[in-house]
Specification:
Length: about 90
């Protein structure tokens, strides 16, 4: 998914993601002082949306296509633990 499309994604998905995972940024989006600045919170919300799991293509079909084309062979399945941006 292009980053612009991911950034315009649904707020409900982002809210569910934020409840489940700890997102560390300079701005504490739960701070009541931040809530008084909707412009700042809106700008902050764009970054996690761009890096959220739903913004990425499922790797299964990609690996299958590479294996089927004789380009690569799968050797392990990995699961991400964290995303670092910056």
């Amino acid at each position: 998914m292009p980053r612009g499309a991911a950034a315009r994604g649904g707020d409900a998905e982002l809210d569910a993601f934020l409840r489940e995972f700890r997102v560390v940024t300079p701005l504490d989006h739960r701070d009541p002082r931040a809530a008084r600045r909707p412009d700042v919170v809106a700008a902050w919300r764009r970054d996690p949306k761009q890096e959220a799991p739903w913004a990425y293509k499922d790797i299964g079909p990609v690996v299958s296509a590479l294996h089927g084309g004789g380009v690569a062979s799968p050797v392990a399945e990995l699961r991400p633990l964290l995303t670092v941006k910056g």
